[in-house]
Amino acid sequence: MRTLAIVVGGGPSPGINAVIAAATIEARNHGVTVLGVQSGFRALVAGDTGRARSLDIHDVSRIHFEGGSILGTSRVNPAKTPDDLQRVAESLHRLEVSYLLTIGGDDTAFGAAQVAAAMRGRLATVHVPKTIDNDLPLPPGIPTFGFTTAVNVGKNLVHNLMQDAATGDRWFFVTVMGRHAGHLALGVAGAAGATLAVIPEEFRVEEFPGSHLPLQHVADILEGAIIKRLADGREHGVALVAEGLLESLDPATLGPVERDSYGNVRLAELGLGRLLMERVTASLTARGVRVPIQPLDLGYELRCAPPDGFDIQYCRGLGYAAIRFLLQGGSGAMVTVQGDRLVPVPFAEIIDPATGRVRVRRVDVQSEMYAVYLSYMIRLRPDDVTAPERIRKLAAAGRLTEDEFVRRFRPVAATVPQVSASDNAGDRDPAVRPSRNTTGGGG
Fold first, then answer.
1. C-beta separation of 116 from 331 below 8 A
2. Annotated catalytic residue 133
3. What domains can you pick out in the chain, each with its CATH number?
4. Of the listed 107, 133, 135, 232, which one is catalytic?
């Protein structure tokens, strides 16, 4: 009797249950016993096989509508130590598992590859890529599952914040999940029409002293956006900042940090929005400019949302593809949907040889789509610190002399990526150009 074990790792993502359902149904229809392992690799690392339960078609036939994971999840690294890896291999052997399907992000994919190597051919493995961060190395234009649902839910939440900001004349600094890349922050900001988004891909950290992005530089970008809104007679806005900015900052700025079992810094505990709020508020208050700023975090609200129609069908395809790959004798690959084709990508092709870890897909800030996002943001640009008329208006709004304004904000205006869409979309920014009208840039 062939046996499949399904393990979910990392943070939740809309669509997990649809993968579990499709994989279970396809496997059962081909005479394969299915075990759902609760809480990721945690029990297997401990040598506990009692957390694996049988799954049948009637258990999963309607779960594709539900958010979360019926098997739970965890961030336990099965390969943290050789002993941990050995216990996982022994646990799977005792359960008589012949196929292992993992659902997760880059860390889970890395762990699955290590387990496959430890089993020395006794176990066929397949990985289904999952993350709302959209940062796994899939082909261009193909999202990771859960991303589109997260953007849609995030868009609604940020829209509510924009209404609140306009009603109460305040700003929100919203830190958006995304450990390594700014896809989610950018996607939510673009869909909601937020005032601006700041993502790590904008910056070449090697150009800054010590090869670290200064926290003050990010604070100055946000303060510059506030000043530009004030110059246009608007005292409110919503700025989204990608959590991944923290990985580019000088560790001395952040203080003591905690790490998970994969060695990742627990970014959510560092309070990026609060750090930025404190710096911007202090700077503005020192010049008599009062702008209420509220820091918030966005991410946990998105991860267990019910998947949208795209993610449901996408995940059903991924679950089906994973089982077909295994039954056809495949192993050691990540499954993808590319157009109308179900395509396995070998683990060897997604591992960065320099780091030994799964490669990260980052936002292409030279792309035309990024130019579209950028053109609707309210932020300082090079002509804001060179055109005399603009300088006068912006300096007055920020209660700075013209020379002080240029010295202070020339560096942040210079780091805005210089890209342009092929249709010459131009700068939709209405500030200091009252004759131009737009619904973008935070309303």
1. yes
2. yes
3. 3-145+307-350 (3.40.50.450), 159-302+364-414 (3.40.50.460)
4. 133
Count of beta carbons in the 10 Å neighbourhood of residue 97: 24
| Vertex 391: Cα angle to 389 and 392 (nearest 5) | 65
Q: Are strands 171-176 and 293-298 parallel, antiparallel or unpaired?
A: parallel
Task: Give the separation between CA 267 and CA 74, rounded to whole angstroms.
Answer: 17
Cα separation, 5 vs 125, in Å, equals 10
Model pLDDT for residues 7-52, shown as the tens digit of each residue: 999 999 999 999 999 999 999 999 999 999 999 999 999 999 999 9
176, 303 Cβ separation under 8 angstroms? no
pLDDT digits (tens, 9 = 90+) for 53-98: 999 999 999 999 999 999 999 989 998 899 999 999 899 999 999 9
Is 264 within 8 Å of 110 (Cβ atoms)? no
Positions of E strands within 99-204: 99-104, 124-129, 171-176, 196-198
User: Between vectors from CA 347 to CA 344 and to CA 352, what angle results, nearest 5°?
Assistant: 130
Q: Is-contact 117 124, C-beta < 8 A? A: no
